[in-house]
Design goal:
By secondary structure, the chain is α+β, with helices and mostly antiparallel strands. It has a domain of 182 residues: Butyryl-CoA Dehydrogenase, subunit A, domain 3. It contains 18 helices and 14 strands. The longest helix is centred in the last third of the chain and has 26 residues. It is globular, with a radius of gyration of 23 Å.
């Protein structure tokens, strides 16, 4: 098929998939008034191929033209190029992930961490994704039930996705995945293990890929960011949105050629971590435009309010810049420190990736608080889009909201910051900062695992005379 256009991507979503939203079955995800903004947001990973082929298209005699999102990293330079692509598409998406980034993370992990028949299936599936220019969702996080119990110890066995039947041609799975971004507006879903597993959890050590319209597969889309937002009030939330779902597998049959891991608990942990290696690298790069947005908004509102020269304002902005540039520097270093992994697929340095992700997440809420402090209470007491649309009221608003800049300019800056910090979109970003791509605790765990302490301890021992 080759590279698809945004319209071809939208047309591919009209396939009878079982999507439920706000209590009703959705028959056309791309045409639904509240879901279409998310589809249009994701379509940017297709439009960028025409707008910036230098970034988004790779050429090969064997493969032809294919999406650069799916280019296998074979060097540190490849990872740097991938980071640049992710940053550009995120910049178009207002600092939010778009679509193909996550699925390609999963493909790289599958090629690195599977064996035998699973590796053959992963290689064939990778080629299928290139040829069809497919957009993939990733289902990794199980609903987990009682968190102190492992998969096989749950009162309800379906609280982790597991194999319930198998034959020579297929396996059958039951259970659910949660926090599944893009599931309702992707072409296929790749399922990965959520954690390391022991011998008793063998039935839960499963990985595969199926089309979104596969019988028995249902998606219950979160109503967060529901409704159609006024673009004056919510310049971000009215245009940029992700569809998150509870993804339920009700005895879904998976053909063997789409199974990458079948009851191999010893490979569950390595596959889960292999995905994390790439997904957090994606995270720290797609967050960079968001950091630029926060710093830029801080400058704009300080100037608009006439406080840009105040000492405490300069201090806040300097701290925001330091935070943003620390994450950027670590993101660049993660690619420079890359190393070759299994199957010749290179991976970014896990230690640096997790330090970058932790630095971003740990500082996010302080940064949002600084931005709110600079903006003032008008973030939640200001007028709405319907007020601004009325010419008579607009004149009043323009007069009384003027400061160091005209009233309209100040209101638009305030609404941008309100959307980013105080409204539903801001709440969504706040939760993403804490939990998306792994929690703060998960990042600290990976930092500790990845750090080779020998150099430091040997040096300390020598100076201590040990």
């Amino acid at each position: 098929m080759g590279l698809r256009t945004p319209d071809e991507y939208r047309a591919g979503l009209r396939d009878g998939r079982r999507v439920f939203y706000r209590g009703k079955r959705v028959t056309d995800v791309a045409g639904h008034p509240e879901l279409a903004p998310a589809v249009n947001h994701s379509a940017q990973c297709f439009s960028i191929a025409a707008d910036r082929p230098d970034l988004a298209v790779r050429k090969s005699r064997e493969l032809g033209d294919y999406s650069a999102f799916y280019h296998l990293p074979r060097s540190a330079e490849d990872l740097t190029a991938r980071a640049t692509l992710i940053q550009e598409v995120s910049r178009r998406g207002a600092g939010t992930i778009v679509l193909k980034e996550v699925g390609s993370d999963a493909l790289f992990a599958l090629l690195r961490a599977t064996e035998g028949a699973g590796q053959e299936a992963a290689q064939a599936y990778y080629r299928r994704c290139l040829d069809g220019d497919l957009a993939l969702a990733v289902g990794q996080t199980d609903v987990k039930g009682h968190r102190s119990l492992g998969p096989s110890a749950q009162a309800d066995p379906d609280l982790y996705l597991h194999v319930v039947d198998s034959d020579a041609e297929s396996i059958t799975v039951r259970g659910a995945k949660t926090h599944t971004s893009f599931s309702a507006n992707a072409d296929e879903i790749v399922v990965l293990p959520t954690r390391a597993m022991g011998p008793d959890d063998a039935g839960y050590a499963v990985s595969f890929a199926v089309p979104i319209d596969t019988p028995g597969l249902s998606f219950y889309v979160s109503p967060f960011l529901a409704g159609t937002a006024d673009p004056f009030e919510q310049p971000l939330g009215s245009t940029h949105k992700l569809l998150e779902s509870l993804t339920v597998f009700d005895d879904v049959r998976v053909p063997r050629d789409r199974v990458f891991l079948d009851r191999r608990p010893e490979l569950a942990g390595p596959l889960a971590i292999a995905f994390v290696d790439y997904h957090r690298f994606t995270a720290i790069n797609y967050k960079l435009p968001l950091l630029d947005l926060i710093v830029g908004a801080a400058h704009l509102i300080a100037e608009a309010n006439g406080i840009a020269k105040a000492g405490h304002v300069r201090d806040k902005i300097a701290r925001l810049i330091s935070w943003a540039e620390s994450v950027r520097g670590l993101a660049e270093l993660a690619a420079l420190r890359a190393s070759e992994g299994a199957q010749g697929v290179w991976l970014p340095d896990p230690l640096t990736v997790n330090i970058a992700k932790y630095t971003f997440a740990h500082g996010y809420h302080e940064a949002a608080a600084a931005l709110i402090d600079l903006a003032g209470g008008a973030l939640v007491t200001g007028p709405g889009g319907e007020d601004w649309a009325n010419p008579e009221i607009r004149d009043v608003l323009a007069k009384y909201y003027a400061a160091a800049v005209p009233g309209e300019q100040r209101l638009r800056i305030l609404n941008l910051i309100s959307d980013l910090t105080a409204r539903n979109y801001g709440g969504y970003q706040s939760v993403l900062a804490t939990h998306a791509e792994g929690s703060l605790e998960a990042e600290k765990l990976q930092i500790a695992r990845s750090y080779d302490s020998a150099r430091a301890t040997d040096y300390a021992r020598r100076l201590a005379g040990l």
